[in-house]
């Protein structure tokens, strides 16, 4: 191992140890299952913003955007993150409703609002994508480790899976929130540090713009308006019902904190969006001029663009900080997905159907065991994965959003929304997404999220009007 590799590995090793320490520290603050799942509902605006931003800035938003900017999207790759900012601005307006529901999971809301059938169907549909989301973040972290120290990708997958699962299981949402807060700074600072070194190596931005085709510098041409609109719809629908996101709103100390946290997180996304896109374009220009040895990229694919750029342009200490930041980005998403899956299984399947008299401590242990299991499953999926990071994320987002979005959000406002409407919406919307995604049927060449939401809306409104909610209220049933 050369001096650079030793320095880089040392920095990342220290970072990983700090994450494990935070997990242990958070575990000493856990007194109940509510502490574990929703951090005792004590998150203020700043902590809310940090954990919201870190949760959704993962492998797709960092390495994935660099990959897309290096490839066909160019600077228009900024929209992959800017559309997240738009989503959290929208969610800020419904944040108080989400917080005031005082539930721990999205399926719990469905169960207490509509009944057991919609609750269990939603629980199953939401657990499956969380495994895919966990795997996608493990993939991104493992790419960094494998490039960084030259180990096999499979070994890197195992290391990442063990670390992220361990600290997540130790402290639950409080652990995840504390690590997210630290990770958010590492993500942004680590990525920003690359820009001046990359620009210097490329001969300045003026030189980059002379080499890169004009279409690659456009903010819309590469990605296209259709994809931008699709991303906004997909993120809004998915984040609104995604356990890893709304669990933060449940954990806010009050409605105002939830609103402020959502707006601040959106601001972070706006600032961050341009950094990976710029780095992807710079990498492309350097490869064209031969200033960057693209052997690693050509051999292993464009997902290696950012690690390759950093290694060849930055001092070892800064490379170590960047890699710690990139691992932060991916692990801060993976830990939330693990916690989301564990919370749903323990709170909405085990406690409701398998052991109705389970103690609070028992439910907590089941949550932790499920997180370990999902970590293992995520690791297996990561080892077998051949899809791009963003493609895997998009499908996972779309699957859970297709049928759950309308009955979840509208259910907070529309008294008529009923069990018949919710159940049909979840089932039909999800099936529509799968049919279009797998090319079994086509829907005017639109992305799967659109037929999912449209079919979901039709049956939700129709059946809720035919068989309306007999309680004629949006209030939840006490359990």
From TrEMBL:
GO terms, molecular function: transmembrane transporter activity
Keyword Nucleotide-binding: no
Family to which this protein belongs: Belongs to the sodium:solute symporter (SSF) (TC 2.A.21) family.
GO BP annotation list: carboxylic acid transport
PROSITE patterns registered for this protein in UniProt: NA_SOLUT_SYMP_1 (PS00456), NA_SOLUT_SYMP_3 (PS50283)
GO cellular component: plasma membrane
Pfam families: SSF (PF00474)
UniProt protein name: Sodium:solute symporter family protein
The keyword Ribonucleoprotein is assigned to this record: no
InterPro entries tied to this protein: Na/Glc_symporter_sf, Na/solute_symporter, Na/solute_symporter_CS, Sodium:Solute_Symporter
Protein species of origin: Senegalia massiliensis
Residues spanning the membrane: 6-26, 77-98, 119-147, 153-174, 181-203, 223-242, 263-284, 304-327, 363-383, 389-410, 417-436, 448-467
Record localization: Membrane
Predominant place of localization: membrane
Source species, domain of life: Bacteria
CDD domains per record: SLC5sbd
Membrane protein topology class: Multi-pass membrane protein
Keywords of this entry: Cell membrane, Membrane, Transmembrane, Transmembrane helix, Transport
């Amino acid at each position: 191992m050369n001096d650079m590799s030793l320095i880089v590995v040392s920095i990342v090793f220290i970072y990983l140890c700090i994450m494990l320490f935070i997990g242990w520290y958070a575990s000493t603050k856990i007194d109940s299952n509510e502490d574990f799942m929703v951090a005792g509902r004590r998150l203020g605006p700043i902590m809310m913003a940090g954990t919201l931003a870190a949760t959704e800035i993962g492998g797709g938003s960092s390495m994935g955007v660099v990959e897309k900017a290096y490839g066909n999207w160019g600077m228009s790759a900024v929209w992959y993150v800017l559309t997240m900012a738009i989503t959290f601005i929208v969610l800020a307006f419904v944040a108080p409703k989400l917080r005031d529901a005082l539930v721990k999971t999205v399926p719990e809301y469905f169960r207490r609002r509509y009944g057991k059938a919609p609750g269990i169907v939603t629980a199953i549909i939401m657990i499956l994508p969380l495994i895919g989301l966990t795997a996608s973040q493990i993939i991104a972290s493992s790419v960094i480790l494998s490039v960084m120290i030259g180990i096999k990708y499979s070994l890197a997958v195992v290391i990442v899976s063990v670390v992220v699962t361990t600290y997540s299981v130790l402290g639950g949402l409080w652990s995840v929130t504390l690590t997210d807060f630290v990770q958010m700074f590492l993500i942004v600072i680590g990525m920003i540090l690359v820009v001046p070194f990359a620009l210097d190596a490329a001969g300045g931005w003026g030189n980059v713009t002379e080499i890169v085709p004009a279409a690659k510098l456009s903010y819309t041409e590469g990605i296209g308006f259709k994809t931008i609109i699709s991303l906004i719809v997909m993120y809004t629908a998915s984040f609104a019902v995604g356990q890893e996101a709304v669990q933060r709103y449940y954990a806010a100390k009050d409605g105002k904190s939830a609103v402020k946290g959502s707006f601040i997180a959106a601001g972070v996304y706006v600032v961050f969006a341009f950094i990976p896109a710029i780095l992807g374009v710079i990498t492309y220009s350097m490869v064209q001029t031969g200033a960057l040895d693209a052997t690693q990229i050509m051999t292993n694919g464009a997902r290696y663009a950012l690690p390759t750029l950093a290694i060849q342009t930055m001092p070892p200490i800064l490379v170590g900080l960047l890699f710690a930041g990139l691992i932060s980005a991916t692990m801060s998403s993976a830990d939330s997905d693990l916690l989301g899956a564990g919370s749903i299984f323990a709170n909405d399947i085990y406690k409701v159907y398998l052991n109705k008299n389970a103690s609070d401590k028992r439910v907590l242990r089941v949550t932790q065991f499920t997180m370990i299991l999902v970590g293992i499953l995520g690791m297996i999926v990561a080892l077998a994965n051949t899809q791009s990071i963003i493609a895997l994320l998009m499908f996972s987002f779309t699957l859970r959003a297709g049928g759950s979005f309308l009955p979840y959000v509208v259910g907070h406002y529309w008294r008529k929304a009923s069990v018949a409407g919710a159940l049909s919406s979840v089932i039909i919307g999800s099936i529509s997404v799968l049919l279009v995604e797998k090319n079994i049927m086509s829907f005017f060449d639109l992305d799967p999220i659109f037929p999912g939401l449209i079919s979901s809306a039709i049956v939700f409104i129709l059946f809720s009007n035919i068989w309306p909610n007999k309680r004629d209220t949006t209030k939840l049933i006490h359990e």
